[in-house]
Amino acid sequence: MLKTFLSHQSKSFWRSRNKGSSIATQIILGFFMLYFLVLAVGAGFSMPYLLPKIFANQNVITSFNGLILYYFAFDFIMRLQLQELPTLSIIPYLHLKIKRSQIISFLNVKSLFSAFNVWPFFLFLPFIFMRIAPAYGAFATVMYIIAIFSIAIFNNYLVLYIKRKTISNVLYTAVGLIIIAGFAALEYYKVISIMAASDFVFKAVASHPYIGFAFPIAAFLIFKINSDFLRKNLYTEELSSKQEKKVSTDYAFLNRFGKVGELAALELKLILRHKRSRSSVILGFFFLLYGFLFYKTPAIDGDKFGQMMFGAIFMTGVSIIIYGQFMFAWQSAHFDGLLSAKINFKDFIKAKFLLFTIASSIITLLASFYGFLSPKLLLLQLAAYLYNIGFGTVIVLYLATLNKKRLDITKAASFNYQGTSATQFLLMFPYALTPILLYVPFGMMDMPYWGLIVVAVFGLIMLLMRGFWVNVITAKFEKQRYKIAEGFRE
Amino acid sequence: MILEIKNLKKVYGDKTVVNIEHVQIKQGETIGLVGNNGAGKTTFFRMLLDLIRPTEGEVLSKGENVMLKDDWKNYTASFLDEGFLIDYLTPEEYFIFIGSLHDLSVADVSAYLAQYAEFFNGEILNSGKYIRDFSKGNQNKVGIAAALMQKPEILILDEPFANLDPTTQIRLKKLLKEHPGNMTTFISSHDLNHVTDVCNRIILVEKGQVIKDFKTDENTLKELESYFSA
């Protein structure tokens, strides 16, 4: 039975609608996976030589031991963010003559097919064979491997269990995040040290290898808990969505824009009421931290706005870029309805401009806390903001008329490449390069502020020309709508 | 008695969607579940199939609570909606998979499907399409045929006549009426003509509650029509 399930899974992958058309995406994803695997293997084999250099004043094995739990703590957080619950795939089997226990073991096995469960091996095995084996002998080596394997499994099922629990109770999420944040803070302020703890644990395994059996026991326990929970709660409506009372809402602030405002409100509801669009909004807030990567003190002191431009554009325009890359496709499920309804296409396009402008304004206001780093950054962000709402919106909406890929917005966003096509990759080039190209000549002539003014004025002119751009995009949209609708219907 | 529903309740928020005190179903009965949209028909079916956890009460299949044991899966077949189909398989693959669950060989399955040639009207088998590429009507046919193939003692179909063309509706009626043995059938439908024609017992539900429960006779259709037009 398990074999049949897995063969169905592979069929579902290879026969997925987007497969044929998005081979480019698949290849790029494949390269990414390969890249990370190569990185892991490389890191694994170079660890015996790199560790003494990084932690010069301690024993290599101490450093290695210290890294293990560190890695898995990080692994845990990453999994929490990225690992998907394999739940929806079981719906067609529930009513059939298949035992519940078989369905659960399928869910359990399926969850093991995750890159997270492969990396630790590539990362840690080389060092174990090269350094641990000669130092502590065969038994300890085997226990090391068992321990690492078990922690990976432990993390795997713990994350699934937590995720399943949190679906039914938001409180768990809050508590979990507070605990993790607490540990992070303790580590940061050097109250406790994961490295020291990790070293302590694995030293014990090295000297008394049988202690290592604790890990598989822990892994088995969490596996059991997870399976039991599933056995008692194998109801898809409880496993996959929250039950909350749905209420009708009215966004009063949009009413003043008339028809356009109504359409914008419609789309705002779409964004807030679907998982994928909602997570792209939340992602937008995370990108507010991007500034810390780009706004480096030397760059700020040297007025090197060119280096920081991308960061500023991306931050203030993140909602336009992330949400806009799938423009129209968000509405693919009811696109026919929109086309046949009494909607003026011009209003339809204007509503998108309106939403983008509001979103970008909010993010820009929030991002102005970087003014504490240096007031200059406010100028930079203002220029970026004007560019985003003036010209960025135009690029995004124009390219959107070329996008014919259907999107299922009920699915989550991480590692979901449905609806992705070459358009999305194309989008970034004109979007990010235009302002940088505008700035560069002035940057080279050592007139950074003039560069900012040019970018800002360019954005402002485009903003004033919005009426013209609305007409251009509406015309293009009217021409393309049949093709778009056809693509969305698939 | 093959099925017994005891004090079954499903509450979403403050809305009671299903509230059925006691219903007993004897082997061989063909029951039509009739009611307007929102009457709780599909939710009720989903609880029969243990797809939704009841807020209260229980469904006993051959005396055993469906939530506790899954023996009922051995003799129960169902098709409620397209979510029951594995839509990235071809119909053949799907039938063979369902057949394998009931220990039918590939040859058994094809022999079985041969008798449905008329029902399928040449559009399903060897069409070179995945199930998801079919129209809703044809997807329905796949689901219904797959359910019947399991030679169930209990068959549950939600709106089997919806989306089907007139010819197929008539064929399906024939299939349901003629189907041999002591199969207990549970169907829901908005088409009063069809249910009274196929079923020998009608359960009328409204807002989750059983309003009427009676055997069909020559006056049933009139009775139902007058109830729904009131």
Automatic annotation (TrEMBL), chain A:
Keywords: Membrane, Transmembrane, Transmembrane helix. The keyword Nucleotidyltransferase does not apply. The chain crosses the membrane at residues 21-43, 103-129, 135-158, 170-189, 201-223, 279-296, 308-330, 351-372, 378-401, 422-442, 448-473. InterPro entries: DUF5687. It holds the Pfam family DUF5687. The keyword Transmembrane applies. This is Uncharacterized protein. It comes from Pedobacter jejuensis.
From TrEMBL, chain B:
Residues 3-229 form the ABC transporter domain. It comes from the Bacteria. GO terms for molecular function: ATP binding; ATP hydrolysis activity. The keyword Nucleotide-binding applies. SUPFAM superfamilies: P-loop containing nucleoside triphosphate hydrolases. Keywords: ATP-binding, Nucleotide-binding, Transport. Pfam families: ABC_tran. PROSITE patterns: ABC_TRANSPORTER_1, ABC_TRANSPORTER_2. PANTHER family: ABC TRANSPORTER ATP-BINDING PROTEIN ALBC-RELATED (PTHR42939:SF1). This is ABC transporter ATP-binding protein. It comes from Pedobacter jejuensis. The lineage of its organism: Bacteria, Pseudomonadati, Bacteroidota, Sphingobacteriia, Sphingobacteriales.
